[in-house]
């Protein structure tokens, strides 16, 4: 039964590597917020935390009532849909970049010291 210690390859050697714990937790970095399954619900929840988006959603809901309708229903929905669509695209691109960076960091080579 050999034990091993995995240290990042920074060029420096740890002086007290024999005193390091033998049980390790996962050393995985994850900064991405979304997965394919959770993107739409979590992103919509984040979008509707913004006051401006709630305001436009309130106008869309009000326009569905004939007594209050000022514009056509489709015209009232257009600004909200455009803002939500562009924000979703921006968030998806940023999260994909974070995922790629996490993947790069997680597969960086390290030195392994065996006892």
From TrEMBL:
InterPro entries, alphabetized: ATPase_P-typ_TM_dom_sf, P-type_ATPase_N
Organism: Melospiza melodia
Pfam hit, one: PhoLip_ATPase_N
Record key words, sorted: Membrane, Transmembrane, Transmembrane helix
A Gene Ontology term for the protein's cellular component: plasma membrane
Name of the featured protein: AT10B ATPase
PANTHER family: PHOSPHOLIPID-TRANSPORTING ATPASE, PROBABLE PHOSPHOLIPID-TRANSPORTING ATPASE
GO BP annotations, alphabetical order: phospholipid translocation
Residue intervals passing through the bilayer: 48-65, 71-89
SUPFAM superfamilies according to UniProt: Calcium ATPase, transmembrane domain M
Domain P-type ATPase N-terminal residue range list: 21-76
